[in-house]
Amino acid sequence: MDRESRADKRSNVLVRDEEKSVAPLSSLSGSEIIKRIVDAQNPRALVQGMAHGDFYWLVKKVGEADCIPILEHGSEEQWQYLLDMELWKKDRLDLSQAAAWLSRLRAADPRRLAKWLLSEGQATTYYFFYRSVEVEIQQDDEPKDFPDGFFTLDGTYYIRVIDSEQRPLIEDLLRFLAKENLAAYQSLLLGLAGVLPAETEEQLYRMRGVRLAEHGFLPFEEAISIYSPLDPGILHRGEMSAEPAPVSVEEVPRDLVPVSPFSQLHEDNPFVIAVKGFSDPLLQDRLYLEFAGLCNQLLSADGVVINDVDMLVKTCRKAAGYVNLSLEESSSGDLHKAALILKEHSLVSLFRVGFGMVLHLKWDVLKWMEQDAWFTRQGLDLGFWGDEWGETVAGLLFEKPLFYCGDREDRQYRDFRGLADLDRCREIVNNIMAIDYLFSRLSERIPFPAWEGEEKTSAFHPLLFHVWARNLLGSRLSFEGITVALVQELFSRLRAGEEGPPYLMPGFEGVFVNDMLRLAAVHDDDWESRVTPALSALWRDFRAEYEWVALGDLDQRFSRYLSIKPAPKADPP
After folding, report:
1. Start-to-end Cα distance in the chain
2. Domain residue spans in the chain?
3. What global pTM score does this model have?
4. 425 contacts: CB under 8 Å, gap ≥ 6
5. What's the pLDDT tens digit per position in 291-301?
6. How far is residue 389 from each of residues 202, 395, 404, 534, measured CA to CA in Å?
């Protein structure tokens, strides 16, 4: 082996070793990322050794204003990937974005940009300048005056920038092109007259699609298939004919395997643990590559505009959530079994299985609401079921279902992360169906109030507990609110024998459940088995609501489970 070959080999080893630091870079600030790259032994080899997707992630992480050092060390192919991601709004090339990114590349490496614009990027160059400038030619034998706004760099071609706000940037680009290669500059301006804009833009868009398809960015009509549900049974029966085959990475250089998308996953779930636990580097690379492709397909299907790195992170976690959901369901929490499933099935298939599980629950809810739900027949909306129950179902009914997390997290809704989220939704849906059935039975015996206006948005809790409280105290059964005197009598009985808070009201959970089953005449074993746990859950919430509240502190404005009517005014003497 000659000296040059040994040097190349050492360089490749260095690049691969440094490339391993790409994933941890995502946890650093923008300035720390720049410092890590600049301080590397071979910054250009480090950056150009990244997969195109990783390069793009770092640019978005650092931010447009500070990304020049990364652009400086990037390859022309990485530049092209960046421009493919940033310059287009659907099928139209955004001239302002093009001008901004060409300006940044001009600041990063002007000579390479000039060469690229006049070679590989020539089609983009012609279309950009055709849309951006007007060109007039000064003939030697016909001197003429040009209107204000025209300028010339060679005395022959006179140029006016169409958008005055872009003039400094575009004029700077033209000056640099003329300085680098005057003949090519003049050929460019002369050739603008022959540009067919619609055909050129269509060709650019088509070529962009071809390039991005290699990274998983499919046309919308193809990408949307990611939301087509797959039967979970394929993961058990080994039916792989109906699903995409796992990606082969044997011919893909390891340096081109993107690691940034997977590095955004910090949850300790079966998917992440299994991938990190594989000792086979080829298998890990296959999963990294598949996961990046899955995320990119989701970006295409969702039509996401990538304004910042947070949009990319959100998409990665969405992809991982549904993959993890299907893994948890099919492996029953067995990590060894989860690893085998990952080896045998594509991540696209696992995503479709996981999304399908949520989608089937949504369809069950829609069918029930349309055909059987008592509350919809009463003209009530989901607000009737209170914040948590109602908002959970509302999230399920979104076009792409979301999990309701309320005030437990920094946002009201998010994508599903695993089986625990789906199980929680199933539990709430089952409880709603059970209590809805209970109301349908109770309303046959007790007239349901004709609510109007804001009353129709009131939650169901007081209605149930009014009926039960009146029954317990021997009053006339009604859904209507109860007086302060009745409330005090109720809690005195519930707390009998307890000296102070917390008031646990022992024994009354069973009383509440049995009384409500009897009052609603629930004799069907199947319905009884469904209604009983729902009532038990409501009782536990009721007890927790009042276990620290003294009788004198009950306030009709803030009592979620009881609607307390003001005491009637005494007649004047």
Report:
1. 116
2. 12-213, 220-348, 356-373+384-438, 442-565
3. 0.84
4. 358, 361, 392, 396, 403
5. 999 999 999 99
6. 49, 10, 9, 12
